[in-house]
Amino acid sequence: MRVKVRTIGSLKSLLGAGELEFVLPAGSHVGDLLRAIGETSSGTVSRHLMDVDDRLVPPPLRVLVNGRDISVLEGRGTSLHEGDDVLILTPLAGG
Amino acid sequence: MYRGGYTGKILRVDLTRRTFRVEPLPVDVARDFIGGAGFAVKYVYDEVPARCDPLGPENRLVFACGPFTGTTIPCSSRMAVNAKSPLTGTMVVALTGGHFPVELKAAGYDVLIVEGRAAEPTYLWIKDDQVSFRAADELWGLMTSDCQQVIKDRHHDQNVRVACIGPAGEKLARLACIVNERRVAGRKGLGAVMGSKNLKAIAVRGSTKPSVADQETYTTARRRMLKAMKDSTSLYSHFAHHGTSGNLDNCSALGIFPSRNWTSSGDPRYAETIGMAAMEARGRGKTACAQCPVGCSQLRLAQNEPYQGILAEGPEYETIYAFGGTTGVDNADAIIAADRIADEYGLDTVSAGVSIGFAMELFERGIITLEDTGGIPLAFGDHVTMVRLLRMMGEREGFGDLLCDGVKAAAERIGRGSEMYAMHVKGLEMPAYDPRGSKAMGLSLATAYCGADHNKGYANQEVFGVPYPGAVDRFDPHGKGELAMWNQDASTAAADCPTMCAFMIGNAVAPFLYENTADLMRGVTGLPFEPEDVQRVGERVNNLARVFGILAGFTRADDDLPERLKTEPIPQGPAAGHTLDQAELDAMLDDYYKARGWSPEGIPERRTLERLDLGYAADALGLS
């Protein structure tokens, strides 16, 4: 299945684009997607996506599936489906 | 009387009689209201008749620092300013930073109350215990940066700090604000109140430092706060280099960035043209408020004609939205120029931009014509006309005379169904968060005592995913009553009262927010504050401000959002299709009033007010 991945800021710079398409096996979840992104990118990206402490302030990684924070879904175990929009945001807080 | 933090003195100035006196700050006021926004609300409640004319002599301006102001607590140079607002008719509390707050405290005052009206243009000169009334006829008409510089030169002291109004405040524009350095007590027409008193500026120079009551507790608490700031994933890595401009990219990605007078929320183009990257490319270093190790204020230089060479401190996210998105302008240089011009005239950037966007939509719809605009055609995206209109608003000239009082007043004067397009709550223009994609944010905007102020109940949880007090679904209206209350009370008590920059909440201290303030309060003042005491102060301040609004004539009907947000879904982008209709808003209001201990009509119940030691407010409402 195909999912759309959008990102901004420093992660966008690291990935080289603000919008990417990823093909994943059916039944994949967010954790699988993050691993897949890490595997196709540099070690920096991989660490940024996988090696995170969610207790930090603000959360070092904010992931939303179809607009909703995964923290109110199933976390990294949130299932993904064909055509899902996955937004990965780098930390910032102020406006 | 005070072991630390407070100076213990209120400076009361009577502009009519040209007299002043110094009064003691009562200890029970310090305990019950902490300082800053708390004092500002308390003294306006006590001394300003709720039904008075905001531009008349009965209104008073209250400038209040807190016990943290002037200490070495990081990010503590903040000051609350309050009065009855000519824009909203409520009390309002604006917060400013920079250096003026610390200087007022250094002069020896926790609070400055300005009453009456000077017979001639006047500025106040405060040097420690010397207070004098100086002629401002030569300052009248000056832009704010010139006014500040001229005063410093007059006193042969470049370290004098000045809070002043520009031509907009002099001309009583309801969008006028008070400017100190390049910082602003903005959003609510406080500049017009100052102008109505013929008060051009307040200049201050001080020589004292607050004491610290309990050095060990203070040092431990301060170190903990500094460590949280250092450990933040965003504060020094991002915020210190970009300020709030990255929030455009963030909100755009969430689909809640409003544009074209709120007709095209979710339009993705602005992140590329006027977002973080565009502003970074124009960066010329940064400045910091006193006692701030972060320095989030970015200096930006417009690059292209006709704006080349104009420098602004900013623009911040709200200003980018106001002069960018909501006007349809995607020219970063024009936004920088508009930011600087608004600051010079002393006009609130957010309200000014939203007012211009409102006029653009009316023109495109044919509701207003060239006859109304004095021959100036308006169109979304036309930045040259935007800047032209901004100057006209600052001068109250031509069509600017109608716009400079805000969208609510403009719609009332225009009629012809224009009210439908006026994006405000209680008269205060909407800030840059679409409530249809951020429900707790929307509820805060609908219920805040001063109208649509994003800084009264900022929903860090929805905008940034900060999971304190818990993670939330931004589209779900359930549970948002308690969350809006928590956000309003927490930012009030933990930031706006002691004075601490509210950006430290989402970026650093959210996990121990009330503890942070309580520990620092005990350390600085020696007063026995626990986290629940701090929380109660926030509740107390917001309830008292609410009562003032009720006495001024506000009801549940005013806890509302603009009509078009309740009848249309977000039209495009990542949050397309999401709605917030009247039924949902009503349910959230019911939820909020219940959380607050208010009646279904939104009136605080006597038992709530008495629990908060506000029995006198219950008496004022005539509650049984």
Keywords:
heterodimer; A: 95 residues; alpha+beta; Ubiquitin-like (UB roll); five-stranded mixed β-sheet; 5 strands; B: 624 residues; Aldehyde Ferredoxin Oxidoreductase,  A, domain 1; Aldehyde Ferredoxin Oxidoreductase Protein, subunit A, domain 2; Aldehyde Ferredoxin Oxidoreductase Protein, subunit A, domain 3; six-stranded mixed β-sheet; 28 helices; 17 strands
What can be said about this structure in brief?
The complex is a heterodimer of chains A (95) and B (624). With 95 residues, chain A is of the alpha+beta class.
User: What is the CATH H-level superfamily of chain A?
Assistant: Beta-grasp domain
Biggest β-sheet of chain B: count, sense, barrel?
Answer: 6 strands, mixed
Strand-residue fraction of chain A? 15-25%
What is the tally of helical segments of chain A? 3
Percent of sequence in beta strands of chain B: 5-15%
Structural class of chain B: alpha+beta
Q: What's the Cα radius of gyration of chain A?
A: 12 Å
Provide the helix percentage of chain B: 40-55%
SS field, number of helical segments of chain B: 28
- Strand order, main sheet of chain B: write it out: 2-1-6-3-4-5
The biggest sheet of chain A amounts to:
5 strands, mixed
Strand order within the widest sheet of chain A? Answer: 2-1-5-3-4
Are there runs of chain A of 5+ residues with pLDDT below 50, and where?
A: none
Straight-line distance between termini of chain B:
37 Å
